[in-house]
Amino acid sequence: MKYCSFQTEAGPQYGEVVDRGGILWIERLLPPFEEDPWTKFSARPFKPLPLSKVHVLAPVAPRKIVCIGRNYRDHAAELGNEVPKEPLLFLKAPSSVIGPGDEIHIPLQSQRVDFEGELAVVIGRMATHIGSDEEVTPYIRGYTIVNDVTARDLQKSDGQWSRAKGFDTFCPMGPLVTDEIDPWAGIVVETRLNGEVKQHGNTRDLIFPIDALLRYITAAMTLLPGDVIPTGTPAGVAPMQTGDHVEVSIQGIGTLANRILDGSARI
Ligand code: ZN
To answer: Per residue in 127-146, pLDDT tens?
Structure first.
């Protein structure tokens, strides 16, 4: 199933998305997910709508975002880092989430803000200590796109990454969650800046595949429904400037597009 969150007169709602002859439609409303206390289910009758006609919101309200650093060989190399022997985990602030079409704000504190296009896992069921012979897919609600926006200069100077990865607006997410793709089989992750292709990776090249990541994470911390796990970025990260337009596309999910604004223009 594919679903999105979108704005209606009755506030944000979740909707099931179906492909009708190559056009995506919101077919019916879905009850809110347990991690999201803000969305109130509308009992009003609903007429199907083309996805292109609605204001799409971030599809998940995560309680935590567990990211993976350096999970593609070519990206580790481009920043002069060794390939890690174990997954490198860090947390991204849930308050940094924005939706498709929202603006990424460049903070005054940073001179270099990079995009990182990533496939992200959305957890569907509480998961703790997933066993080595246990299937991980029952814990996965689906997959979405995350742009793991990073203040690269502060990431280096701070010595750890909470601020550099956690500024407000630094986690664009969406437009959909789908369980109809298979990252193990290889899914293309492409990032374009002002229309120019900058990143073109494939999830086949993940150093630690998703099953290994979920086992590693749940050996340390319990994953809850709605938790989001961006799986790392391929090579080609680069800075964004005010006025730029960044798009991350993943086969089977769609395109996450955002514009860049100067933080001082923020209201
Ligand atoms: Zn990243």
So the answer is: 999 999 999 999 999 999 99
Percent of the chain with pLDDT over 90: 90
Please give the distance, rounded to the nearest whole angstrom, from the Cα atom of residue 73 to the centre of ligand 1.
13
CA 44 – ligand 1 centroid, Å: 40
Under DSSP, the state recorded for 257 is E
Identify the CATH class of 65-265. Answer: alpha beta
User: Per residue in 223-254, is it b (16+ CB within 10 Å) or e — as a string?
Assistant: bbbbbbbbbbbbbbbbbbeeebebbbbbeebb
Closest CA to 251 of 181, 192, 147: 181
Residue 114 Cα to ligand 1 midpoint, Å, equals 10
Burial pattern 42-60, b for ≥16 Cβ within 10 A else e, equals eeeeeeeeebeebebbbbb
CA distances from 73 to 92, 190, 203 (A): 22, 16, 12
How many separate helices (H) and strands (E) can be counted in the chain? 4, 20
b/e string for 4-32 if b means 16 or more Cβ within 10 A? Answer: bbbebeeebbbbebeeeeeebbbbebbeb
- Nearest Cα neighbor of 200 from 248, 245, 238, 244 is 248
Show me where the domains of the chain are located: 2-57, 65-265
The label of the residue with tokens 């009708």 reads 20
